[in-house]
Write a structure and sequence with these properties.
Elements lengths: L9 E2 L8 H9 L10 E8 L3 E9 L10 H5 L2 E3 L2 E5 L5 E4 L1 H14 L7 H14 L11 E10 L11 E11 L10 E5 L17 H16 L4 E5 L7 E4 L3 E6 L4 E4 L9 H12 L4 E4 L3 H10 L2 E8 L3 E8 L15 H14 L10 E3 L2
Parallel strand pairs: 1-3, 9-10, 9-16, 13-14
Antiparallel strand pairs: 2-3, 2-8, 4-7, 5-6, 5-7, 6-17, 7-8, 10-11, 12-13, 12-15, 15-16
Bound molecules: pyridoxal-5'-phosphate.
């Protein structure tokens, strides 16, 4: 069943598979990123051999030389996508080729080897096939897939590693908003930025995340659930949250989102929302947006809704910016209408409840 360009995977199944009882317990309340399936994918890479030894093996700890470059110079990239169970039991990926392409762009920026798209797709299919029982079926649940590549050459010199490995692990994910979609409050980081011109902001790499953790703590200490980063040069323009892109909705029904300047991560969800909104006839502007425009628009009523988006939460309404008086919804009041209907349209496609007119779904199992 392999396509011609995809490598043959060796499959070694686990001798200690989780029992159905235990798995059912996990799937009844999976949370996020806490539990992992019985298997993982590994593909090795070296300068001499290229990608080789593609395999599915029992999930377990890695053996890494302490001199591995990833541990010292953070030469690492990752992806995040979900497998959704449809009502007929089949399992589908949402735009996985976009993740494959993005991972290649990230690899290029971090001087890591680029995994061919066909191998990326085959790797997630292989893992979902062997661990398909881990894909939950309750509403708004999924199996979260986490492909990642690390530099594992034993060498402390500072240069691109000549050995690397690609992995995929999978983790069942519960509904992000089990009690209904709740708006989040935003802390604007004035002191810290996430990414600068010419940096790695557009690459999905762990280093961007480590830089965002302290500002995220600051947000929590100030009673906010998310941090918003502004541009590094002028500290004036919206960029994104630690792991989600942002949109504003204007009273005329048009949408605004920061343009991709090179320091913003190009979200698959962001792109999907733009496509869905335009298909409904909404104007979507990708451009520079100042924080003042948001503040003033919120206060005057020109901006009526705001939301963040990404694979994990899909669409998260934003109710308020810390320190500002205006508010759109709160824990009790519902989120904006367009925010909720775009969220519904997207999840309906992902779960097979609405026709996939854009050809975004790929069957995995
Ligand atoms: C992954 C990520 C996003 C969202 O991307 P999706 O493809 O929609 O999940 C947004 N911002 C950052 C910094 C990210 O790492």
């Amino acid at each position: 069943m392999h396509s011609t360009s995809a490598p043959a995977f060796t499959v070694t199944t686990s001798k200690q598979r989780t029992s159905q009882d235990e798995r059912d317990k996990v799937l009844a309340n999976p949370g996020f990123g806490l539990h992992f399936t019985d298997h993982m994918v590994v593909i090795d890479w070296s300068v001499e051999q290229g990608w080789h030894d593609a395999r599915v093996q029992p999930y377990g700890p890695l053996t890494l030389d302490p001199a591995s470059s990833v541990l010292h110079y953070a030469q690492e990239i990752f992806e995040g996508l979900k497998a959704y169970r449809h009502a007929d039991g089949s399992v589908w990926g949402f735009r996985p080729t976009s993740n494959a392409a993005r991972m290649q762009r990230s690899a290029k920026r971090l001087a890591l080897p680029e995994l061919p798209e066909a191998e990326f797709l085959e790797s997630i299919k292989q893992l979902v096939m062997v661990d398909h029982e881990w894909v939950p079926s309750a509403p708004e649940t999924s199996l979260y897939l986490r492909p990642f590549t690390i530099a594992n050459e034993r060498f402390l010199g500072v240069r691109a590693a000549q050995r690397a490995a690609y992995y995929v692990i999978a983790s069942p994910a519960g509904a992000y908003f089990p009690k209904g979609v709740a708006p989040v409050s935003i802390w604007v980081s004035e002191q810290y930025t996430r990414a600068a011109r010419g940096g790695t902001g557009a690459a999905k790499c762990g280093g961007n995340y480590s830089a965002s953790l302290m500002p995220q703590q600051e947000a929590s200490q100030n009673g906010c659930s998310q941090v918003l980063f502004l541009d590094a040069e002028e500290g004036k323009y919206l960029e994104e949250l630690g792991g989600m892109n942002v949109f504003l909705v204007r009273k005329d029904g048009s949408l605004l989102t920061p343009s991709l300047t090179g320091s913003i991560l190009e979200g698959v969800t962001r792109d999907s929302i733009i496509t869905l909104a335009r298909a409904r006839g909404h104007v979507v502007q990708e451009r520079k947006i100042t924080l003042d425009e948001w503040r003033e628009g919120f206060a005057s009523g020109e901006i009526t809704e705001a939301f963040a988006c990404g694979t994990a939460a899909v669409v998260t309404p934003i109710c308020c910016l810390k320190g500002e008086k205006f508010k759109i919804g709160d824990e009790e009041a519902p989120a904006g209408e367009l925010t909720l209907s775009l969220r519904k349209e997207l999840t309906d496609i992902q779960y097979g409840r609405a026709p996939d007119v854009h050809g975004w779904l790929q069957r995995l199992a």
